[in-house]
Specification:
Elements lengths: L1 H12 L3 H8 L2 H34 L5 H7 L2 H4 L2 H12 L4 H7 L9 H27 L2 H8 L4 H23 L1 H10 L1
Helix pairs in contact: 3-8, 3-10, 3-11, 6-8, 8-10, 8-11, 9-10
Length: 188
């Protein structure tokens, strides 16, 4: 890791400000920025919604396979980035498990911004789940039950009792996971 970074620093130190500006404002580089930001935004929204949902399911419900599902949330941490990328590329290719089905709707994932967003979401959703899960475990269902005994609907108790407690983790988790995901996508 130090070797590529030191090579980058050496190369940058040999450039003038005008050369540096020319490189970072190159149309291809600007297009790469746009693709990365769009993919990161879509992945963050997806992870915010589904990460919260997954953390909710894992803390509030007991069902067969729950332990396995909880362990699968850590799978992106265990897989090397290259292996995750190759696996996702094969799953979403035209002949892949998901890609074959998506091709019927003329949706192409591999080698598009959507594929980058899928990879970002896959590699970073554990950050959201593991950020929100402890807050939900600590909160417990008692607060929701108390709100419901006072006449609140399930949605009102979630919105007015649970969500304010979750807001730091629910909003911070999706954005905190952007750095590793964006750096992984720019390395591809």
């Amino acid at each position: 890791m130090l070797l590529p970074l030191s090579a980058l620093v050496v190369q940058l130190s040999e450039m003038s400000w005008s050369q540096y500006w020319e490189v970072i404002s190159n149309p291809q580089v600007v297009a790469a920025y746009k693709v990365t930001l769009l993919s990161a935004f879509v992945a963050s929204i997806f992870n915010g919604v589904f990460g919260l949902l997954m953390a909710w399911i894992l803390t509030r419900y007991r069902f067969p396979g729950r332990t396995l599902l909880d362990a699968l949330m850590d799978l992106p941490f265990a897989l090397p980035t290259a292996v995750a990328g190759l696996t996702l590329a094969s799953l979403f290719s035209v002949n892949g498990f998901y890609g074959e089905w998506l091709a019927k709707f003329d949706i192409k994932v591999t080698y598009t911004w959507l594929g980058i967003a899928v990879a970002m979401a896959f590699t970073s959703i554990p950050f959201v789940v593991r950020t929100v899960q402890p807050v939900l475990e600590e909160l417990g269902p008692e607060y929701e039950e108390a709100a419901e005994t006072l006449g609140a609907t399930r949605w009102q108790s979630f919105r007015k009792v649970v969500l304010p407690e979750l807001s730091p983790g629910a909003t911070g988790g999706p954005w905190r996971c952007r750095l590793p995901a964006a750096s992984a996508s720019s390395a591809r």
